[in-house]
Amino acid sequence: MFRSRSTIGVTTLLLAVVLSGCVAESATTPSEAPTSATPTSSAAADPSPTPEASETTAGIALPDDCAQIYSPAMLSSLEQEGLPLNDPAVTMLATQNAALLGDLETLPTLRCSWGAPGSVGITTNVTVVDAAQAAAIETELAEGGFGCGDQGGGTVCSIEQRGVSLDDVPYVRGETHALRGNVWVATSWLNHPLDGYVEDILATLGA
């Protein structure tokens, strides 16, 4: 798997966790603990590609659906864990960085989530970018405290946070971003290590 440096601790990028709904998307300060509110369905939970999803640059073409971004083995593994794919009640986003969220709203992207409202979840956006956009994303991640490193012909940046919710439930969460060729794989996770997950997506996409 990628062996990127990780930044441990609470940062302004990683905000409060909603254990009953995978994450909280509202802005909080680093000192605030996660709440237990359950999120409601929102447009962000729509797994369909954006209207520009059919556009491509030199490199990969954006897949039509989430099943196409995983190898059969990874897809089977996630399904066997009992994590539902694209539960509409999950509003967990692939990043809590405001600038990067703006990119995900405007660039060709496909959102995929695993899990139901609860204490375990993964959300990934596969996004088509050009060289200038990729460079800007990498700069934003590095300046935001992510540990970044060159891996497999691309860049992987990651960050991790451990804490305790208001209900005294320990949690671990983080983000991993991979940039290779014309693809950006942004993943946010809660209480679910990403062993081999991002690598599998890149290999399946041929990035």
Automatic annotation (TrEMBL):
PROSITE patterns: PROKAR_LIPOPROTEIN. It comes from the Bacteria. Residues 1-26 form the signal peptide. Residues 28-55 have a biased composition (Low complexity). Residues 28-57 are annotated as: Disordered. Keywords: Signal. This is DUF3558 domain-containing protein. It comes from Microbacterium hatanonis.
